[in-house]
Amino acid sequence: MPYTPILATLGYVLSPDRSAVLLIHRNARPDDPALGKYNGLGGKLEPTEDVAAGMKRELHEEAGISVTEMCLRGTLSWPGFGKSGEDWFGFLFVITAFTGSVSVGNDEGTLSWQPLAKLLSGELPLWPGDKHFLPLVFDDDPRPFHGVMPYESGKPVAWSFTR
């Protein structure tokens, strides 16, 4: 069977001094599989847009900002990640410059600036697999990473990546 994942973006907006990251606290919908977790911003790609345009659109829709500088840090395949076992494939970005004022929240939850150190140390409630790829998103290696993280029953069962 061919691999036909849902294509998505996931972006981490850094504060101007690079010490904090804009995250969504998924606390708005009781039926949300990510309820209570913090996450970057993003979502599904539209059929007629490239990944950079999709990332910019999602950040404008979800946070009210316009991206002026971003970098693709990697890609990640999540077989079995979806609510009904759907496969997802994500393009992960770090956003280093934007214009506009950040919204307070959106339909999925509350937006807040969290210390980057707190995100990387695991002090925030995150998806269980985030601890594996977040260090690669924020490290100093200029090469993008390409990872695979299969999920079963809502939990990662393996992790591998190349650069």
How do the strands and helices of this protein lay out in sequence?
Layout (H helix, E strand, L loop, with lengths): L5 E9 L5 E6 L12 E2 L1 E4 L6 H13 L2 E13 L9 E12 L5 E2 L2 E7 H6 L8 H9 L6 E4 L2 E2 L2 E2 L3 E3 L1
Parallel strand pairs: 1-6, 5-9
Antiparallel strand pairs: 1-2, 1-4, 2-3, 2-8, 5-6, 7-8, 9-12, 10-11
Helix content: 10-25%
Class based on secondary structure composition and strand pairing: alpha+beta
Beta-strand fraction estimate = 35-45%
On the 0 to 100 scale, the average pLDDT is 96
Radius of gyration: 15 Å
The rough form would be described as: globular
The succession of helices and strands, N to C, reads EEEEHEEEEHHEEEE
CATH architecture: Alpha-Beta Complex
Weakly predicted, low-confidence segments: none
Annotated CATH homologous superfamily: Nucleoside Triphosphate Pyrophosphohydrolase
CATH class group = Alpha Beta
What tags apply to this protein structure?
163 residues; alpha+beta; Nucleoside Triphosphate Pyrophosphohydrolase; 40% strand; globular
